[in-house]
Amino acid sequence: MTLSHTQPHPVTILRGILFVLLLALHGVALSATTPATMDDANAMDQSLDTIERGLRQGTADSKLTATWLKQVGALRDHAGDCVTTTQSTIIETEQKLKTLGATVPGEPSDVTHARHTLEVGKSDAEKLLSSCQLLILRSDDLLKQAGTLQQQLLTRQLLARGRSVSTLLRENYQQAPDWITASQAYLNQRSGMERLSGDDILSLIGLTLLGLGVGLALRRRLRRNHDGTADSTPDSTLNRAAAQVLARYLPSLLPSLLVAAFFYMAGRTQPEVPLLNLAAYGLPSYLLLLCLFRLFTVTGETSKRLALPMPIAKALMRRLALLALLIYVGYLLYATVLEQALPEPALLLLRAVFIVVFALNLVWALWLLGQVPFFNTVRWPRRSVELTLIFSVAAEWLGYRNLSQAALRGLFGTLLLLGLALLLLRLLREFYDSLSSGTHPWQLRLRGALGIKPGGSVPGLAWLRPLTALAIISATLLGVLWTWGLSAIGFQQLYSYVMDGFTVGSLHIMPGRIVLAVLMLTILLGLSAWFKGLLGNNWLQRTAMERSAREALVTVSGYVGAGIAVVVALGIGGMEFSNLAIVAGALSVGIGFGLQNIVNNFVSGLILLFERPIKTGDWIVVGDTEGYVVKISIRSTQIQTFDQADVIVPNSDLISGKVTNWMLRDPRGRVKIPISVAYGSDTALVKTLLLELAEEHDLIVTDGSAPEPKVMFRTFGESSLDFDLRCFIINIDKRLQVMSDLNFAIDAAFREHGIEIPFPQRDLHIKNWPEPPPATPASP
Fold it and tell me: Which of 28, 96, 145, 639 has the fewest CB atoms found within 10 Å of its own CB?
């Protein structure tokens, strides 16, 4: 006896995933369908009556029960569509009736007729709504009954007991010649070897050699490309491991794929698939499973977390390779017509031996993993696996084969799904790391298209990491539940919890819509960043707009895109925008109590972006801060001083305070250099020299577009004659450099012409000098 209860088909899960994606794109719970009628409701009611009578009889098997579950689930979905569509119709009709208003004496007949038609339609819609709601209640009740019946049938199947191993040994001892003869006859007549012609054998040899040659060439290329790249990229560890595994198995994997394709093309018209064909179909899967196991052990050797020593890694790979071989052999025994050729006692005995070998090998592999410090800390999962294996072997040998098969299928499926999930999470993590750093050329092109500067972060990547991890974990959990035999009603309940949500107190939570909202927010933020980069780096560069105007437009577009993304995500998440008034009221209270500065800076930032009294690249002076404007954001402005220090200035200071902008309308500006010469110097020569030096400098304006350089005799100082050299320069940004150049030139010219630059002098006059004390005569 085999376990024959119906499992949810993977297509059902894929349909659910597709429905989730459609929900994310459209932002509605259900897509609009053809409106239901009372005839449809009556037809659905009759279908439920038929299923209910079948359930009351209690003679259904597991397949029929599963069929009823699917039918009831589909009917419930139709009833739900009916409720949604009818409610929308009723609301629309009520709005139209509200627009027409109450009956007024003497009103036109067409208005009265329209009101009567709407009222009749509303009454019919309310009747249909009641019928559809009743159908939902009946469907829920029948789903529970069918689910209970399915669980009873499943329990009965799992606890069904067949012949024990001791009984099988006696029967096989008595029937040994029979199953040996049957096996020989099957291999001679139905294995598929008898159907191969000479041309087929030559084709197989040619395909094998072709695949072997291509595999060897790819192996050499992989090894050449990945030699000496130990730490070149963030994902080099996994890349090297994958390249090493592929280089090992490509010479055998490619021929197996070509041979499997040959047998598939040759056996499409055969009514019965021979053993040789099935062996060819399963060989690539066997080799791919070996690749997966090898990748786990190879990356474990270089992973700090796993830290597999070389002897343990090799021993573990031998155990895993034997597991893969056992799976392949089990597939050949129980998934082919060989199962029908052998006598049942022999087949059941082989199955018992197979399960014992499989369990012992898996326990051995777990024991090897227990030698690793990381796996040694998670003892209870290993103990659970070991206990499950012992339970499966005991159930098999006692005759509870359905129970043993269910436990082994669930256990191995869980381990395989967990391994795939861990591998996918590792691959995605390293992919995101390489995308964030821009390792490969296509990643650099993508970053350039999004307008991301070197070293900058990819927009939305921080959200995409947990979302993809959550998707993988959720899919793994669904797969684990499927392998352990969760019924269709169970999957439907899970789907209902995720999409329809659940209520906690007065709060209704819909996890599916929340995840979709976050996913849509991530996608829209990425699109907004892409549009912002395209706008700033491509489209606006071809216009005649000023640089400051382009930057302001790009900044505003970024904030508009982020705002649209937030609004769309909130709408998908189920937030009622009528509640925004409450949020606005709470926000106004917050502003009144302590957010004045934030709002002030925000409004000031908008003023700066649109009015543009300062622009990026301007040289400004704000209080005691002087430097270049690097970035203008909504809340603050970044100024870089001449010492390369970044100063963050709130935007409100730039709007309400005094700001000096040296480059607001014209980059040109005036410099003033004070010069002092000694009394008696030739002042006409001083003026001539200063004007000549100013006209010789390249950055000083002398073409008449600005006032010519001038020398001003300011005053007679205490010890010097004071002059000013005043001139306009092309770029005020070079003010300090021009002043330094002129000072050097003035000093050299004055030295050459003997003009003295004085320094302060003071005369000291002493009116009363004290008399020195009389000298004391020396003692004899």
Answer: 28
